[in-house]
Amino acid sequence: MVDIDLKSYFDTVNHDKLIGLIYKKVKDIRVISLIRKYLQAGVMRNGVVVKSPQGVPQGGNLSPLLSNIMLNELDKELGTRGLRFVRYADDCAPRRRVQVA
């Protein structure tokens, strides 16, 4: 079995693309604004807040949900290629066909 982990995925998410995908389903600008603020809140490094121009906070409550929204298109593409897999956030594992008697 092969496991897939998208290297540096959480660090490289484009905020504008992610917000665009969310906006396709969620039209409430207040919700969109809160998500954007969450994405741009920054991280604390050595006691100093550093801005986050891209990426999704790892370990945050919304991170797996935002990851699944962003990677949904990848899931569709892999599915059209006949690949069977299970993905959660940035981790992916292939599935085997099981013969049902």
The amount of helix comes to: 40-55%
Structural class: alpha+beta
Give the radius of gyration.
16 Å
| Poorly predicted parts | none
- According to DSSP, the number of beta strands is 5
* % residues in beta strands: 15-25%
Taking strands numbered 1, 2, ... along the chain, how are they ordered across the largest sheet? 1-5-4
Kindly report the average pLDDT value: 82
Described by strand count, sense and barrel closure, the largest sheet is: 3 strands, antiparallel
Provide a count of the helices.
Answer: 4
Q: So what's the overall shape?
A: globular
Q: Order of helices and strands, N to C?
A: EHHHEEHEE
* End-to-end CA span: 23 Å
Short description:
With 101 residues, the protein is α+β, with helices and mostly antiparallel strands.
Describe this entry's structure for a reader.
The chain is an alpha+beta fold and 101 residues long. It is 45% helix and 16% strand. The chain contains 4 helices and 5 strands; from the N terminus they run βαααββαββ. It has helices spanning 9-12, 15-25, 29-40, 63-80; strands at residues 4-5, 43-45, 48-50, 85-88, 91-94. A 3-stranded antiparallel β-sheet has the order 1-5-4, covered by helices on one side. Strands 2-3 form a two-stranded antiparallel sheet. The longest helix is centred in the C-terminal third of the chain and has 18 residues, at 63-80. It is globular and about 45 Å long. The relative contact order is 0.21. The model has no long low-confidence stretch (mean pLDDT 82).
